[in-house]
Automatic annotation (TrEMBL):
Transmembrane segment boundaries: none
Domain Cyclic nucleotide-binding: 1-77
Any one annotated GO CC term: cytosol
Gene3D superfamilies reported in the protein's UniProt record: Jelly Rolls
Originating species: Paenibacillus solani
Keywords: Activator, DNA-binding, Transcription, Transcription regulation
Any GO MF annotation of the entry: DNA-binding transcription factor activity
Name of the protein this chain belongs to: Crp/Fnr family transcriptional regulator
Superkingdom per UniProt: Bacteria
InterPro entries, alphabetized: cNMP-bd_dom, cNMP-bd_dom_sf, Env_Response_Regulators, HTH_CRP, RmlC-like_jellyroll, WH_DNA-bd_sf
Transcription keyword on record: yes
Pfam families: cNMP_binding, HTH_Crp_2
């Protein structure tokens, strides 16, 4: 399945009848809290099998995944996935590897959030996203507010940092 920028892969609260293998592209995952606060809490990238929390057993989706750029996804029936998990002795190791990769990614992101100042965190985010963004600049698919959520600063700080980068380019 091909999704274009802005198209939804899954919505918060969906039943989880499918899992998705991200073949190319990027997705942002947002969560709407009961108080109306919308938070960007994850970026999905090629190679991931999602939702992560449903790799072993079904659960409704925790957030909404929206394509940031043109993306290709393989849709997998959850029933088929769980049946294979029970029947194929190699499948649990595959799941363990997928979860291990996500843990390693989260460790990298935590390192990025705890190193240096905001400018360095922004540079690390840009460098990481450039690996998957097909040459599209970060500001073409994420808002300043979303960038701020990913690097732990306010939108105004992102605006200032981006103006500084533009002067260098």
């Amino acid at each position: 399945m091909i999704l274009h920028k802005g198209e939804i892969l899954f919505r918060q609260g969906d039943s989880g009848d499918h899992l998705f293998h991200i073949r190319s592209g990027l997705f942002k995952v947002t969560r709407l809290h009961p108080n109306g606060n919308m938070v960007l809490f994850n970026i999905l990238y090629p190679g991931e099998m999602v939702p992560h929390h449903s790799l072993i057993s079904p659960k409704e989706t925790h957030g909404t995944a929206t394509a940031l750029i043109q993306s290709e996804v393989e849709v997998i029936s959850a029933k088929t996935w769980y049946r294979e998990l029970e029947e194929d002795p190699k499948k649990p190791l595959e799941v363990a590897r997928l979860l291990q990769e996500k843990v390693r990614f989260m460790q990298m992101r935590l390192d990025h959030l705890t190193v240096g100042g905001p400018a360095e965190r922004l540079e690390l985010l840009i460098r990481w996203l450039d690996e998957y963004s097909q040459g599209i600049h970060l500001t073409e698919y994420l808002t300043q507010e979303e960038i701020g959520q990913l690097i732990g600063v306010r939108r105004e700080t992102v605006n200032r940092l981006l103006r500084g980068i533009d002067k260098v380019i």
